[in-house]
Amino acid sequence: MQSRYYLSFILLLSTLTLFANDDRAGLSGVVTDAVSQAPLAGATISIPDLRLTTTTGADGRYEFSALTSGRLTVQVSYVGYRSKVEVVSIQGQTTYNFSLSRSVVENENVTVTGVSSATRLKLTPVQVSIISRKDLQQSVGNTLLDAVAKEAGVSVVTTGPAIAKPFIRGLGYNRVVTVNDGIRQEGQQWGDEHGLEVDEYSAQKVEILRGPASLMYGSDAIGGVINILTNTPVANNTIQGNLQSTVNSNNGMFGQYANVAGNTNGFNFNAYGSIKTAGDYSNRYDGKVLNSRFGEKNFGGYVGLNRRWGFSHLIFSHFDQHIGMIEGDRNNAGQFTYDGELPSNHLIKSRTPLDPNQRIKHLKIALDNNFSLENGGRITALIGFQRNERKEFGHDHEEEHADEEHPEEHDDHHHEETGQPSAYFDLKTINYSLAYHAPEWNKWKASWGVNGMGQQNRNKAAEAIIPDYGLFDFGVYGMASKTWNQTTVSGGLRYDIRDLHSRAMSNENGAERFQAFSKTFSNISASLGATHAVGEHVSLKANIARGFRAPNLSELAANGAHEGTNRYEIGERDLKSEISTAVDAGIEITTNHIDISIAPYFNHISNYIFYNRLLTGSSADSLIDGVPAFKFNQQSARLMGIEARFDVHPHPLDWLHFENTFSFVRGKFVQPVDGSYNLPLIAPASVLTELRGEFADVLKLFSNLYIKMEMNAVAAQNNFFAGYETETATKGYVLFNAGLGAEVKIANKKRFSFNVGLQNIGDVGYQSHLSRLKYTAGNPVTGRVGVFNMGRNFTARLIIPLEWKL
Length: 806
Hints:
It contains seven helices and 47 strands. It is mostly beta strands. The radius of gyration is 26 Å and the shape is globular. The strands form eight sheets. It has a 22-stranded antiparallel barrel. Strands 11-16-17-14-15 form a five-stranded mixed beta sheet.
């Protein structure tokens, strides 16, 4: 019923602005080389706030015809040149020319994450990183988050190769918000074995905001934001397509992706589909890791209209993933077992997940609108619906008692998704957002808005780990920025309220499992920051922010264990909201050949929520249903750290790139917990070094050829949460990777591109401190505890672009 009112309001706004906005305006001009004044054909010009993109013709000319008067942020980019971002005042038919300078350092970009409108990175007081489509394709890794984790301050908690969760500055789970095409992603993100549930092949760009972002997103964003952008309109009167194939040698992963996007006179669309299948991965210590297999089938896109009054885009996506859950049980010979026995060759070679496994489906539909007003302001409105269905299958299928006289049939029954799931979460979410962006006046920018969500979760299987519940969020905010000469100050204020209602539930035998209760959480968030340019090459940043995170249902009311974890979790109903007070600072030095940034930070969190192992009086594990029991607790905590980047492009070897990234975070409780001051799940210090050569043209056959070597050095983590024996120390390791790729031209036209990579060249046996497989069973032969990460892996990717002019 609520969504019907939201849609009616959006349609009313659209009708009003259609009639009110008849101002004829446009933007055109020429993009040239700053030295030679030669036109640059194929340069990309975009207006992020209006979702408009075009490219220059052979004469360097570009044109946007359907605009309204006002001030707009325009970005211009061209390979081998320094991008330029300008705020252009449009009055009627406006001409604006751009001159670009050659540069091997990309030091100008635009972000849309955590801000009310597109903003130059240099003017945002918080730390934001941007990963382009090219960077994603050239990444030597298995997943989208492998590329994201190479950014300073970002790490990943994994449960095998298909399940990864982002951590930013030592914070993850419900402390990091994932946004996909403007919609806050809502699944069961409180769980170790619950991933992002976004099609990674469709990502065109990823923005990473490090630090509290409650001002824009309300509860949960005290660690930061991962913003994945997949739907970007192509140039007018153009149809573009892409075919992509990816293979991995280690687990035999095979992925296919295809999309087609078009734009004709403002009517634009994108449609994509992907399929991915993988067997079990291997490493030097464990061999083939049984049941690390997975598969995906996804599709999505959007259809929209861009007109003088703004745009309206209908976004849709469907994510479908089937994952095996790694238990790590072994026999006395150190071999992985299934139901206590050695698996047959048929099961080992199969790609279909065994029990236990999980099947996740995520449906998303949203209407994203932007209405331009006569006074130069804008109204943005979004309404979205998500349904996250998670089915978990254990070892208790009726089919597992199949006729032992037919072992092949027995095997099939074991690893097909048959019978009833042991756990089934059905989460439905309505997201809403409405904001007014005032026209820029005297270098003042301001926005006011409301956003939030309504949520309903139902259990549809016998195992209910969390109760059925309903939730409603409402937040109202205002933010503004002002620029004086080389200084920009920005800040804002927000008030949130969250109502939560948990239902009573009983076991199959009628005993009470969950009690009914209601909770209301409210909070005031605020931020204030500034940026200052010291000359042309140096900029300073500083920001202070207060944010919050309301406890989730698992923390409040969990009562059970499910496949994929080795814990029986018990909630604590009296938990309070986490309150974060964070201070950031940063300095950036950028020249044509050097790029240096240093960003220290400090974050104090009151009522930090964590779980700890429950022990008996004799210090043995407290077991429930044969599984170690953990209970949620809270205590004030502090996190501090530093992120640094040092990139050198030595002249005259402009083709050579020597890039280094350093990350360090230290998390401590204010008071010790069972004698331990250390926070759980804190990544150790790491250094990522990359030596890369880039060549624009080679033998008239290759363009944008690159070859690179990486060294990823990760320190040991001896500052682990030892309270109640919850975590253990982790050894350090060094991994070497390599990559090669290029665009291939035939008849002087780009026909396809390829990227190949070799990961973990030395086949190092290692365990990431944030791998949950580190805590599976030990190997009785070697004495090693837990399952190790993936060994040597060769990756190859082929991309075929298609384009038609209308």
